[in-house]
Specification:
Layout (H helix, E strand, L loop, with lengths): L1 E5 L9 E5 L9 E10 L2 H8 L12 E2 L3 E9 L13 E4 L2 E2 L5 H4 L10 E2 L11 E5 L3 E3 L6 H4 L2 H11 L8 E5 L3 H12 L4 E6 L2 H13 L5 E5 L5 H7 L1
Helix pairs in contact: 4-5
Length: about 240
């Protein structure tokens, strides 16, 4: 199969190649997925540019990419689940947790201290095939476009951040109107937030926020550039 491989610890194209790699063989509790679409995360950009933030955990050569969707190709010997079959359209949670630590046992697996991320600590999804634990596979409906199915990891971040508490009638502040911030703003508005205050250092991002609010006929969005706005105006908006 072909895959995008970080081949050496250097910045840019000289450290990344498209290579022919063996198709991964799923372990007993793993599922092999044929990748249909993948999204590029900020982490992937850090890997490509070999930024200091990822050097400790990422050991080349390695296939990167952790946001994707695809179709089940095969199961490991213990991986079969009642709701999954070969050919099913799926995505997967690429954070693999231990299942044994206090955080995992108390339902807080997203902060497991032993988390491994496929695409960072193990081979990822910028390839024709990827293997993942069966417990991490998520079946998708046929109505979910590939471009959305590949982006659910980022959407999940926005959903989690905005659903920790009830936002109905609340004033919500969102710091940064990048893709996740934009989705968080949309979820906050849909959840009944009375006011959404967006801050950023990019005028382009803030104008995007204003256009989104206008398209939604949402009058209570306030967008501020924190480099140039007066703190009193931000406080008044909240």
């Amino acid at each position: 199969m072909q895959a995008v491989v970080k081949t050496s610890p250097v910045d840019g194209a000289s450290g990344t190649e498209i290579r022919d790699c063996p198709v991964p063989k799923p372990g007993p509790d793993e599922v092999l997925i044929r990748v249909a679409a993948a999204a590029i995360c900020g982490t992937d950009k850090h890997i490509y540019h070999w930024d200091p933030s990822i050097r400790e955990g990422f050991k080349p050569p390695r296939i990167y990419g952790h946001e994707f969707c695809g179709f089940i190709e095969s199961f490991g010997e213990r991986a079969q689940r009642e709701n999954l079959s070969v050919g099913d359209y799926v995505s997967a949670e690429m954070h693999v947790v231990c299942g044994e630590c206090p955080q995992c046992r108390s339902g807080q697996g997203h902060i497991c201290a032993r988390t491994r991320i496929l695409g960072l600590h193990g081979d990822g999804a910028f390839a024709e095939f990827v293997k993942v634990p069966a417990s991490n596979v998520i079946k998708l409906g046929p109505y979910v476009p590939l471009r959305v199915g590949a982006f659910l990891d980022a959407l999940g971040n926005a959903v989690h951040a905005t659903q920790v508490c009830d936002l109905a009638g609340a004033a919500v502040a969102i710091t940064g109107f990048g893709p996740i911030g934009a989705m968080a703003a949309a979820i906050a508005e849909h959840s009944g937030a009375s006011v959404v205050v967006v801050t950023d250092v990019s005028d382009h991002a803030l104008e995007t926020a204003r256009r989104w609010a206008a398209a939604r006929d949402f009058a209570n969005l306030h967008a501020f550039n924190v480099r140039t706005s007066e703190p009193a105006k931000v406080k008044q908006a909240v």
